[in-house]
Amino acid sequence: MKLTVSHPSHIREGVTIKTIMWSKVAILAFISLLAVGMYATSSITLGLSALALVLVSVLAAVLTEAGIQKLTNQELTIKDGDAVLIGLIIALLLPPEDIKLWIPVVGAFFAVALVKHGFGGLGSTLFNPAIAAWVFMNMSWGMLTGSEYVSHLGSASYNILFLGSYSDIIIESGAVRFAEISSVFLIIGGLYLIYKKYIDWRIPLLYLSSTIIVAVIIGEELSYVITGMLFLGVFILAPDPTTSPITKNGRIIYGLLCGIMTVIYGYLTYNYVVAVLYTVFFANAVAPFIEKNTYPKPVNEVQS
Amino acid sequence: MTTEDVKKVKDKEVRKQVVIPLLQHIGTVCEPIVDKKTIVLIGQKIGEGDDEFSVPVHSSTAGHVVAIEERPHPICGSVPSVVIESDETDNTIEFKTSKNPSKEYIISALKDSGVVELNGYSLYNMLTSEKIIDTVLINLSFSGDVSSNCAPENIASIIEGMNLLIKASDAQQGVFIIQKNDKQLKSAIESGLFEEADIEIFTVEQNYSPSMANLLTYEITGMQIPNTCTPLDAGLLLSSAGSALAVRKAVLEGIPQITVNVTVTGAVHNPGVKNVGIGTSIKEVIDSCGGYSGEPGKIIMNGIFSGIALSSDEVPVIKSTCHIIVQSSDEVLHEIPGPCIQCARCVDVCPVNILPGRIASFADMGMHDECFKLHVNSCVECGLCVYVCPSSRHILQLIRYSKTVLQQLLKYEDETSSYGCLSCETPCLASTPYISNGGIL
C-alpha cells in the first residue's frame, strides 16, 4: 500500500489558472464574434478584415509565446490561455477598418515577448501586456491605430427595445473598435466573473462608481463617459490579477484611482476611450506602490 | 511442528496489540512506570512524568507489556511507546466514582486521568496555571470533533462536563460555540440547557479548528492576542466536545482517558463513528469500518483542510484523534505548482488577514526576513489559501518552512547575540555583526 504524505489542504476548490483565463477568453471571443457579425452586415470586406484582425492577433501572440518558450527551454504554457487572452485584447483595442495586419503582429510580439516574458512571464508582469502593447502601437503609429476616433452613445442607427439612442448599450452600430460593440454583454460577462470569484468585486465596483460620480460632479455628459471600452476596462483590464494590488484596501484605492484618472484624462482630451487605456496603464505603474502602503494588519499581530 | 505449536503461533498472530505512545500532549515525554512482561489492567497508569508539563497515559486494554520501544507516531515521527498484548479479558482497575465532586477533587481527578485537548494541551495544566478564568468555552464548531462526539445521547454528558469545568475553574459563565448552519446541534444543546442560567450559546460563521484558538478568542471577545499566547491569557478556558466528555467520565466515573470517539469517512465500506481505545492502530479502526473500498491513497487525521496526512496505517490512535479521512488513490492530488499570478484569492479567504501567497513566494526564494515583516508567524495554518489557489501552490508548506527557519534563526540569535543568518559575517573585514536590509529584528 502506497500512502501519499503532503501538507494540507487535502482538497482543492477546482478553480485553476486555466478556468480563469479561458472564461475571460470566452467572454471576449463572444464579443469579437458579435463584432465580426456586425461589421459583416455593413460590408463583407469589413467583416473579413475584422475576422482577420482577431485571428492574426491571437495567432501572433500564441506563436510568440511558443517560440520564446521553445528557445529558452521552458515548458509550453500556451494552453493556460494567457497568450490567447493577450492577443484577443489587442484585437479588441484596434479598429478593424483599414487595419494594416502587421500592426497587431508587432503589437502581440511586443506584448508577449517584452512585456510578459521580458518581465518574467505569467504572474510577474508589471503592466498588462495588451495595454502596454497598445500604448506602444499608439505611440509609434498613432494614425494607424485609430485612437483619434471617438465613439459615444446617442448615435445609434438601430433602435432595440425602444431604448432610443441608448440602444447603443446593447449593440453599437458605429463602433470603431471591437470593445465598443456591446456594453451589455461585457457587463453580463463581468458580473459572471465576479459571481464566480474569478475577479474581485472591489476594483470593478469602485472603478465604475467613481467614474460616474466624478463625471456627474464635473458636469460631463454621461453618454460620452460610458463607452464599451469603459466596461472592458472595468471588468477585464483593471482587475487583471497580476497587475492590480493584492491587498484588499489597495484594490479599493486602485479602483478609485482608475475612476478619477479616467474622467480627468477624458475631460481634458475629449476622448474617454483612450482615457481608459492610459488610466489602466498609469494605475498598473503605481499598483506596487499602492500595495506596499496598504499591507494589512493581521488579526493576531505578534507584538514586538 | 505439532498442532499445539501451530495453535500457539496462530494465537500469537490473532492476539491484539495496542501501541500506546508516551507522548500524546504538548510537553515532555512520559517515563514508563511498567516493565516488560508486567501484567496491566484496563485504566492502569503506565506512563508518568515528574515535571508539570507531562500528562500521564493509561492502558486501554488488559494484558501484558510486550515491549517498550520507539514506535511510529501520527504526529511526531517516532516516540517511545508501550506495546501491550491483550489477553482478551476486560479486567479493569477499580474506578473511583463520585456523586458531587468538590473543586479540588475535580482538579486532582483531571490530573490523574490525563485529559488532553485536541491541540495537545493538558486540561489540568490549564486549570492550575494561576491565571484567572472567567469563561469556559466549548468549541462545537470543529466538524470532526462534532461529528464524533455530539451524538444526541452525548449532549447531556457534554453539558455535565461543562458544569464540572466551570466548577473547577471558578468561571462566571460557560459558552458553547456552534457553527451558524448547524441548527440541529443548536436546538439539541438549547433543549439540554433549559435550567442552566450561566451557560450561553454563541454562533460563529466558520469552522474553527483547534489551531485557530486565538482567532476564536478574537471573534468572541474582540481581544487580539498574539500567537505566543493562548486563550487562557484572555481568561478563557477553551475546550472541545471530546474533552468535555472525557472530563465527565474522569470525574464522575473515575475512568481515565483511554478511549476516544473517532469518525471514519471517505473510501471505507461502512463510514461511521467508532469508540476506540487509545493505541489501537488506524488499520484496525478502518477494518472495523468494513475496510478500504479501493486502493487507499492518503489517510488524513483531523480535518481535510488542516489535518495531517499519515505516513502509514500502522500508527496508533492517540488522545487528540477525532476524525480519520481515507482518500482513494485516484482522489489524491498530484499537482505541479505553477507561478503565482497574484490573483489575491488567498488574501480574500485568509481569516487572520495576512498575505499568504506573497509570504509563500518570499519563503520560496529564501527571503525569510520579508516573511517575518509580512507577519508569517500570525498564520494559524487553516489551509484555506491552499484550497482556493488556482495555481495549486504549496502555500502552507512554504509558510511552515519559513516559520521553522525563523524559529531556528531567532534561537541562533539568542545564543550568539548577533543578527540573522550570519552569512554576511564571513566576508566582513571589520567582523561587525551586520543587519541585512531590514534585518530580522
What does this structure look like?
The complex is a heterodimer of chains A (304) and B (441). Chain A starts with 16 loop residues before the first helix and ends in a 12-residue tail after the last helix. In chain A, 61% of the residues lie in helices and 0% in strands. Mean pLDDT of chain A is 87; it is low at 154-161. Chain A is globular, with a radius of gyration of 20 Å. In chain A, helix 1 runs parallel beside helix 3 (82-93), helix 3 crosses helix 4 (102-117) and helix 8 runs antiparallel to helix 10 (228-237). Chain A has a domain at 17-148. With 304 residues, chain A is mainly α. Chain A has twelve helices and no strands. Chain B has 441 residues and is of the alpha/beta class. Chain B folds into four domains: 16-86, OB fold (Dihydrolipoamide Acetyltransferase, E2P), CATH 2.40.50; 103-253, NADH-ubiquinone oxidoreductase 51kDa subunit (Rossmann fold, 3-Layer(aba) Sandwich), CATH 3.40.50; 259-328, Ubiquitin-like (UB roll), CATH 3.10.20; 336-441, no CATH class. Chain B is built from 14 helices and 16 strands. Chain B has helices spanning 3-14, 103-113, 123-127, 143-149, 155-169, 183-192, 213-221, 241-253, 282-288, 345-349, 356-364, 368-373, 384-388, 395-416; strands at residues 17-21, 31-32, 39-40, 45-48, 57-58, 63-72, 78-86, 135-140, 173-179, 199-204, 236-240, 259-266, 272-277, 296-301, 308-309, 323-328. Chain B has a five-stranded mixed β-sheet with strand order 13-12-16-14-15, with helices on both faces. In chain B, strand 6 (63-72) and strand 7 form a beta hairpin. In chain B, helix 5 packs across helix 8. Chain B is globular and about 65 Å long. The N and C termini of chain B lie far apart (72 Å). Residues 6-13 and 424-441 of chain B have low confidence and may be disordered. The interface between A and B is large, with 43 and 69 residues.
